[in-house]
Amino acid sequence: MTLGANDSAPAAVRTQRIAVVGNPNSGKTTVFNQLTRLRQKVANYPGVTVEKREGRLAGTDIVLFDLPGTYSLSARSPDEAIARDVLLGRLPGEPRPDGVLLVIDASNLERNLYLASQVIEFGAPVVVALNMIDAVEARGEMIDCEALSRELGVRIIPTAARTGRGIAELVEALRDLRAPQVDGRQWPLPEAYESAAARVADVIRAAQVIPAHAVAAGSVLWLTDYLSGDPASVASAERFLKRLKPHEAEALCEIAGELSKSDPDPATTAIEARYLWIASIAQRVLRRATGAADGRRLPLTDRIDAVLTHRIFGFVVFGGVMLALFTAIFSWAEPLMDLIESGQIGLSDWVRGVMAEGPLQSLITDGVIAGVGSVIVFFPQICILFLFLSILEDSGYMARAAFIMDRLMGRVGLHGRSFIPLLSSYACAIPGIMATRTIENPRDRLTTILIAPLMSCSARLPVYLIVIGAVFGDRLWLKVGVMFGLYLFGTITALVMAVLFKKTLLKGPTPTFIMELPAYRLPQIGAVVRTMWERSRQFLTGAGTTIFAVCIVIWALGYFPRLDETQLSGDARAEFLALDAGPESADARANILQGEQLRQSFLGRLGHVIEPTIEPLGFDWRLGIGILSSFLAREVFVGTMGITFSIGEADESSDALRDKLAQAKWPDGRILLTPVSGIALMVFYVLACQCVSTLAVVRRETGTWKWPAFMFGYMTVLAYVGALAVNQIGRMIA
Amino acid sequence: MATALADLFPGQSALVTLIRCEAGIRHRLLEMGLTRGTRVRMVRVAPLGDPMELDVRGYRLSVRRSEAAAVGIEAAE
After folding, report:
1. Is the peptide bond before B51 cis (omega within 30 degrees of 0)?
2. Is the ipTM of this complex over 0.90?
3. For a Cys-Cys bond, which of A414, B23, B49, B62 suits A409, CB 3.0-4.6 Å?
4. In a 3-state reduction of DSSP, which class is residue A285?
5. CB–CB contacts below 8 A, A to B
6. What residues contact residue A278 under an 8 Å CB cut-off, 6+ apart?
7. pLDDT tens-digit map of A552-610
8. Could you say which architecture CATH assigns to the domain B5-75?
9. Is A315 in Cβ contact with B47 (below 8 Å)?
10. What CATH number does the domain located at A17-175 have?
C-alpha cells in the first residue's frame, strides 16, 4: 500500500471513538468504569485543564472517552463549551466522535432529556443508557423503554451501573451503533422562528461547514446563541460566523436580526418549547407500577437532609466532617510523612557511607534524595485529602457542604464550594489547591487558588515556633496569643484579597449558585480509591518534576563555591582555632566549617546582596539566607538557620538555635530579633509565597505559568509591605 | 401574596411565570427546568438563611435568594 494513495482504509482497521455524554450526577463515570473495566488513561483535553478519561470497551477495539458532565450544550461554562466543541468536532486536535453514549438519570428524566434531546438532534449515532433504573423502580414507577425509544428515535438500554445491570446489553448496542431514526428536531417553534431556522439551515447547508445531519439542530443552536444576550454564547456564535464566507455570515446576521424583531428572547422561546415537548414525552413513558407503595413515605434523601441541613444538627455534622478532614490531613499523614523523612535520612546516610565525600555525594544526598523526598513527603496528605473528597463527592454530601457554607463564602464573593479547599489549606496549600477542582465557575476557582496559600499551612508552624520562642521566651499566653493572631491575620488577608480579586482582576458576571442537590448514595470503594490514586499521581507527575528541579538548583546555590579550612573568615577562624584538635570537638569544627560554607556560598552572597532591601524590615543577611532558602519550602528556614548559626542540624524544638537567634546582634550591637522585628519576620512568612511546590501545583491546575507568577508576585509584595509596616510602625511605638 | 420564588415559605408550591434577570442566569434557570408554568416547591432554606432548596421536575435544585427573587410565580391551583 502506498502512502496517501487513498484515504478509504478498510473500516475495520480504524478504531471507533465514542464520546460518553451526560448530566453531572447521572452515573456517567460508573457506566464508563463498568464498560472499560477500569482500564483507562487520564489526560487533559488539548489546551484546557478539563480531565479526559479514555478507555477501551472491554473485548472490542472501540475507544470510549468521557466528556465533562453538563446540563446543556450552551457555551456558557468552560465544561459545556468543551463538551459541545468535541461533539461538533470543533476542538482542534480532537477528531469528531464516531458515536455518542448518552447516560441519562432515569430517576430525573425530564431534566436529563434536555441535554439528551440536544445531543440526539445533531444526528450522530447514539445509544442511550437509561441509568439508575433501579431508583425509579424503588419508588414504585416504571419507564416504558420501547415508547421512549420510539419518541427519541434511538436505542434505549435500561441500566443500573452500580450493580452491573444492563451493561452487557449496552456493550452489544455500542458494537452496533446506529444513527437516530428521527430527523432532527421534533418540537415545534413559533412560526417566525421556524422560518428563520429554515433559512439559516439553507445557508449553513450550502456552506458545507458541518455534516448534513447536524445542520437542522446547528441552525437553532446558532440562532439561540447569537440572540441570547449572554457574552459567552454570543462569542461562540460569532466564532462560527468566521468559518463562513462573508456573504453567508451576513445573510445569517440578517435573518437573526429579523427574528429578534418578532421575538426579543429566542433562547427562552426555544428552551420552553423543548421542555413542553419533553414533559409530554415523560408523561407518556413514565408509569406508576401496579401495586406499588404510594409516595406518602418521604424519600430517604429527604430524611437524611432533614438532619444534615438542619439549623443546628447540620452544623454539628458539618463541623464533625471538617474536623475529621482536617485531623486526617494534619495528623493521620504525620506517621507516613515521618516514615518518608526517616527513609530519606536513612538513604542519605547510606549513600554517605558508601560514597567518597565530594560534590557528587552531596548532589545525590542533599540534591537528588532531598529533592525526591520533598516531593513525596506531600503524597500522604494528598492521598488522604482526595480519599475524603471523593467520598464526600460520591455520597452527595459535597453539594450539601456547599449549600450550608454558601452564605458565608458569598459574603466575600466566593462560592460555597470554596470552603473545603480553603480549610484544607491550613494543613497544606497543595491539597487545598487541588481540591478547588470541585468549583465549577473558573473565576471562583481561580480566586480560591490565589488566596489559598495565605492560609497558614503546617510548614509555617516550625518557623512560628522557633521565632516566637526566640522572641517571647517563656511568656506562654503571649506566645499563644501571637500564634493565634498569625493564623487570624492570614485568614483575614485571604478574605480581603478574595474581595479585591473578585472586584478587579477576576471581575465577571454576577456569580450564581444554581446547583443540583443530588440524591445521597453510598460511595463505591473501588471508584473512590481509583479517583484518589489518579489525582494523587497527577501531583507526582505534574508538579513533582518542577519541585525536584528547583531543589537541585537551590542545592547548587548553597553548595558552591567550595571552601576549606584555610579560607575561613576572621570570626569563624578565631572560633575554629579556639577549639582543640581532639576528636571530641570534631562536630563543633564541622559545624563551623559548614556554617562558613553556607555563608560564603552563592546563596550566602545573595543574602548579603539583598540585605539593603530587607534591612528596613528588620532582617539582616543571615535571616536573608533563611528567607531565600525558604522559597524552596518554608520549613527549610529552621534547618538553614541551624547551619548559618553554626550549630549543625536543628529543628523547631532546638534550644541551641532558639538561644542563638535570641542573642543574634547587628554589627553595631543592637539585638537582631526584637519583638517588633520578630513579628515582622513572621508576618513576612504569613504573607509570602515561599513554596515551590505550591507554585508548581498552581501551574499544573491553571495550565499556565502566568498565574503562579502572579501569585508569587502579589504575595511577595504583600509580604514585603506587611513586614515593612510592622517594623517601621512598631519601632516608632516601641 | 407571594410574587417571587424567594417569597415562598418551606413547603409552599407555586407555578413559574417569568424570570427577570441577566440573560446568562435566566437561560441557566430555564435549562434547569424552571420554565413558564412549571410547578416548584420550596423545600427548605439553608441553615444560614441562604441559599434555598427547590423541588423542580422531581429533582432538587439549590439557588441563592437573589436568584430566586428574579423568578416570578403565581399561585398553584
Report:
1. yes
2. yes
3. A414
4. helix
5. 128
6. A110, A113, A114, A117
7. 887 888 888 777 766 777 677 777 777 776 777 777 777 777 778 888 888 888 888 99
8. Roll (2.30)
9. yes
10. 3.40.50.300
